[in-house]
Known about the structure:
Blueprint: H1 8-14, H2 27-35, H3 47-62, H4 70-84, H5 91-107, H6 114-124, H7 130-152, H8 159-167, H9 177-180, H10 185-205, H11 219-223, H12 226-246, H13 252-265, H14 267-306, H15 313-319, E1 330-332, E2 337-339, E3 348-354, H16 360-375, E4 384-390, H17 400-411, E5 416-418, H18 426-434, E6 443-447, E7 453-455, H19 459-465, H20 467-470, H21 475-483, H22 489-492, H23 499-505, E8 509-514, H24 518-535, E9 539-543, H25 551-562, E10 567-568, H26 572-591, H27 600-613, E11 618-623, E12 630-635, H28 636-644, H29 646-656, H30 658-670
Parallel strand pairs: 3-4, 4-5, 8-9, 9-10
Antiparallel strand pairs: 1-2, 1-5, 3-6, 6-7, 8-11, 11-12
Helix pairs in contact: 3-4, 3-7, 3-10, 5-6, 5-7, 6-12, 7-10, 7-12, 10-12, 10-14, 12-14, 14-15, 14-18, 19-26, 24-28, 26-27, 28-30, 29-30
Amino acid sequence: MANSTIPAQMQQSMSNPIMLASLIDNPIMHRIHSTHAPDGCSRPFHLKPLLRFTENILQNALSTTTDTPQEEAQAQLNASLEDYDNYDDFLKPYLAQIIKRTAGKLSSVCEQSAQTATIEVFETLSSFQWGTKVVVALAAFSVIYGKFWLVAQSSPTNLLTKSIAILEQLPDMLGVKEPWKPKFKAPTNLIKTILEVAKCIVDFSELPLQYMNLEGRGMPTAAAHIPIAVYWTIYGMAICTKQTMCLPGMGQEDVDEIMEDWNQWSLEHKLTQIHNYLKAQLAVCHQHIRERREIETYELIEDLLKTPQIDNVKILKALIRPKDEQELPLFDGSNKKRAKLEVLWKRNVLLLISDLEVPDQELSIVEKMYQESRQNPAREESQYEVVWIPVVDGSTQWNEKEDRHFETQKAQMKWYSVFHPSLLETAAIKYIKKVWGLNKKPILVALDPLGRVVTNNAIHMINIWGPTVAFPFHKSTEEGLWKEVSWGFELLAAPIHPPIIDWITEGKYICLFGGEDIEWIREFCVLAKAVGSAAGIKLEMLYVGKSNPREKIWKNNITIAQEKLSDVLPGLNVVWFFWARLESMWHSKVQHGETAERDPITQEIMSMLSFDGGNHGWAVFGRGWGEMSQMTKAKGDTILQCLGEYQMWKDEVETKGFVVALNDYLIHQLQTPHHCNRLVLPDTTGRTPDRVPCADCGRPMEKYIRYRCCTD
C-alpha cells in the first residue's frame, strides 16, 4: 500500500548513500525545491531549544510504548522547559501559529496521500530554511502524536481521556499496554530515527559557513542532500501521522493490517541510511572546521606576538582560552582557588610548560626560585608570576587516572596553573612545540608585561646565573653576563659547591673528578693526594659523579665520604644539577651562536660533557680566579699515568707551577692523536646543531641517534 506512494527511483537510491546525488534531479525533489523560497522576512530563532523541547514531548509519548521510566522522561522534559522559556514573548505566539498550521497539513494525510501532505507542509514552510522546516514540522508532529497518546493511554481514574477515547472509538486494547508493545515497535523505531536525522540536519544548519567554502570538504557535498533528507524526514512524519490518525474507529483486523504494512515500508531503514551518510559528512565538516580554526588561532598567536600590545592579556587568552567570559581558567596554588587571566595583567610571566609529569629536579628549581621571590616581594627581581601549562598530546586518552595525576601535580605547586589541560588551544600546543621548542623536558617561556617573548626557555639562564641575576631574562642580559666571566672553577662549580670560593680565595689547588668505577676513584684519589703532598701544594678534591646519577653514584658518595677520599656533593639532586647546569651552558652558547672553534668557554663546556659521555673516570685540576685561573684536564687512564710519572715532571713544578707543569706533561708527553670522545647532548629544545666539533681535535663529530628510557 505505502510502497506505491514512494517512487521506485527514490527507494533504490536511498538504499545506497552513494546514489543520493541521483535524487537531485528527481521530479519530486524539483517540486520540493520549487516550494523553497526563504525571503529573509521569517523571524529567525535558535533551533535547538525547540528541537530539545519537541524531542522530550516525543520521548514522553514514546515512554508509553517502551520501557523508558516515566520519571526519567519527565525529568528530561522539565529540563528542556528552561531552554524553551528563553524564547521571547513575541516569538512563542508566532511559533505556535506556524506549528498549528503545519500540524493541520500533516493531519490532512487521512484524506490524501502522505506524499501530497508532505508537499503541502513544504508549501506552508516555504519561507524557512531547510533546518527550520524540519524542526517546525517535527514540533507539529509532536503535538499530534502527543495528543493521541494523552487519550490512548487513558486509565480508569482519568474519566475525561477515557470518555474521549470511547467517542473516537480507539481500540480497547490500547488500554492494555503489554499486548500492544510489539505492534508499536516499528513506528517507535521510525520516530526515533526521524529525531536523529532531524538533529543531524540542525547540526548542519548551525555550522559556521565561513569555514565551509571549499569544495569536497563535507558541507558542499552534504548541502545538496539536505533537502532530500528533509523531505524523507517530513515524509516519515506524515506516515506516522497517518497511522496515528487512522487508528480511531478501526477494528482489530484493520489495526493489525496497518501495522504489518508499516513494517513492509522499510522507511526506518531508509532514514537510517540518510542519517549515517549525513553523520559521516558532518564529521568531515567538523574536522575541517577544527583545522581551519586551528590555523586561524595559530596565525592569531603569531600576529599577537609580533605586534606591539598594550598588555599581556590578549596573548595569554590566545594560549589559554576559557569557554566563556565567566570561566576562571587559572588555579592559584597559594590559596587553592580559581582565578581570571587578568590577575597576570602587566606582570612578568614565566610559563612553565611541560607534559603532565614535571620531573622532581626541574620542579625543585622552580620551587626554590619562586620561594625566594616571595620572601622578598618588593625587589624588582621578584616581580614575576609563574604559570604551569600542562601540554597533553592529542593522542593521549584522558581518563580518571590521568585526571588524578594532574590534580596531584597541580596541588604541589604554589604558583598559578591552568585549571585543566583542555583549556589549552590545540594551535597553542602546536606553536609551543614548533616555535618555542617544547620536546621532552620542561621549558620556562618568559613574557614581559606587554606579552613579548623575552626568551623561549629561561631555565638555562636560571640554571647558570640564578633567577636574581638572570632577571628579567632578556637575551641581552645573558650576553652581558657571558662577557663578564671566563672559564674556571668559579663558573664551573662554585654555585654548586660554595666552599670552592673559599678554596680559590685561599689559593688552594682544586681537583674535580667524576666517573662510576669506585676502584678507579680510590686509586686516583690516593695517587692525587700523594702527588699533591710531594709537590707541596694544598689540594682540595670534589667528586661530581655522572649526569644521570643512580644508585651507583649514591653508593660511591657514601664510600668516598666514609674513606675520606674527597669531598662529595650533598645528594643526587645536586649531582644532577651540576651536569644540568653544564648542559644549560652549552644550550645558552648555542642559542647565542657560539661554537667551539671560536669560543674557548664553549670548547671547555663540550670537553666536560664529553667526559660524562664516556664510561671511564676523568679529572680537572686548576687554581685561581677569573682570567688568572689555570686549568688542565684529562681522562681517567691518562691522568693516572701522568700522576704515576710525577718524578718525570716534578722539576717543572717549581718553575712553572703545578697546573702548568701537569698540563705540559699531558700535552707533550702523553697526548696522542688517537682518541674516542662521546658527547651526549639531550635534544630538549629541538635545536641541537647538525655539526659539533670534537673538543680534542676540532674535527666534526659523527652524529648518532640515541634513545634512552630511564625510570631509575
